[in-house]
Amino acid sequence: MILLRRLLGDVLRRQRQRQGRTLREVSSSARVSLGYLSEVERGQKEASSELLSAICDALDVRMSELMREVSDELSLAELAESAAAGDPVPVPVRPVLNSVSVTSVAGVPTGRVTIKAPTKAVDVVAA
């Protein structure tokens, strides 16, 4: 079973270690107890959004960057879990995009605008 709190803790620890900082330094900057931050990094405690925000601020890392890295780790963990179970590994499907040039909308010149859209039909409505 994949636990999000473990993945999040691993990513937080790596971020801290990349900066060469100690738990004590980050816990002090984030105003979080050393023991609690340690438990979060080890995946033993679920961090609230407020706590994550404070830790991200202390590490000078955007929460979106942290979550993106956690998401990447989660994807890899899911693939590894599927492969270990012998399940077929799904191939990500990305839509094929075609370029469409638009020079006017409802008879009004727009200049040249290129829109990338899926090959399936897409309705574009001018607002």
Please give a quick description of this structure.
The protein is an alpha+beta fold.
Structure description:
- This protein has 127 residues and is an alpha+beta fold.
- Helices cover 50% and strands 16% of the residues.
- It is built from five helices and two strands, in the order αααααββ.
- A two-stranded antiparallel sheet has the order 1-2.
- β1 and β2 (108-118) form a beta hairpin.
- α1 packs across α5 (63-84) and α2 (23-30) packs across α4.
Strand content: 15-25%
Helix vs. strand class: alpha+beta
Which series of helices and strands comes N to C?
HHHHHEE
**What ranges have pLDDT less than 50 throughout 5 or more consecutive residues?**
none
Question: Count the strands?
Answer: 2
Q: How far from one another are the termini?
A: 47 Å
What value does the Rg take, in angstroms?
22 Å
Number of helices: 5
Largest sheet: 2 strands, antiparallel
**Strand neighbour order, sheet with most strands:** 1-2
- How would you state the average pLDDT, rounded? 83
Percentage of helical residues?
40-55%
The gross shape turns out to be flat
